Amino acid sequence: MKRNIAMVALPAAAAAAAALLADDFVLRFLAEILLFGIAVMSLDILIGFGGLMSLGHAALFGGAAYAAAIAARQWGGDVALVLGSGIATGMVLAALMGVVVLRSGHLFLLILTLLMGQMVWEVAFHWREVTGGADGLRGLPALSLGPWTLSTARALFLLAALLAAVAFVVGRSFVAAPIGRALVGTREEPIRMAALGYSLFAVRFRALVLAGALAGAAGALFPFVNLYVGPQSVHWTQSAAMVIMLVIGGIGSLWGAFIGSAVYLGIQTYLSAYTDRWQLCVGLVFVLTVLLLPNGIASGLRILRDRLRRRGA
């Protein structure tokens, strides 16, 4: 009980402090970290718990971003409409992807998710009348919640923090529930799980749809935080970046997804101002993480915490 309270109280206190002390640029940057953290966490459910490697996850995130932006242009920036359109789009794209890819495995699964993701990119890049093509979509209306307008960086950050908290609780509940245990079973002992009467396709399909809903929710807010959405957000390179974030943060650790997102986006945002070779720095961090912390930064922090506790005892 105390652990659960700490897991909620500490991030809430950090979010409150950031909302009070940080400037607009930092708040938007932190909101972007939280949104990518949600998307990477949803990818972790597939890879870390289901063993389902995907290079098409950006299609769920970016496709929802496009859907939310288009819906806001047509009907206004109501938060319920924006989130609803993003979540629905993420779930639909995940369901379509699941029907095609989940009957394959390993290398074929990876290739099929890549192809499905690139099909979404083709639509976003070439359907210029709707998506803006290579120029993307800008000039979106401000988000609103009833009579309140959520256009300031502080409001968007708090909304992203609330969404991250809800998404983390949903993801944690899923992996702790029987369906989450069954998902781990399909990764470790697929033949035995099938012999016990489990449908491997059904278990994995539900996990993929949930991951699509979480990635879609994050993607729905992304255009309003970033003030832009373009075809790069659905490209396979964005999916690869999410995998890198996940490895750095820690596969199998839901909260490690936010650490990996912070490290990757921090290098991209701040080091790119000094050098064009910021991707080399990401590669070095990635290699060092794999060599020194195979289970990611989250695992290293957990080990450090346990050692400090033992010393204190």
UniProtKB/TrEMBL annotation:
Any one of the GO CC terms: plasma membrane
Any one GO molecular function term: branched-chain amino acid transmembrane transporter activity
Membrane-spanning ranges: 46-67, 79-101, 107-127, 148-170, 207-229, 241-265, 277-301
Top-level division of the source organism's lineage: Bacteria
Subcellular location: Cell membrane
InterPro entries: ABC_transp_permease, LivM-like
Originating species: Neoroseomonas eburnea
A Pfam short name: BPD_transp_2
Protein keywords: Cell membrane, Membrane, Transmembrane, Transmembrane helix
Bilayer topology annotation: Multi-pass membrane protein
Chief site of localization: membrane
UniProt-recorded name of the protein: Branched-chain amino acid ABC transporter permease
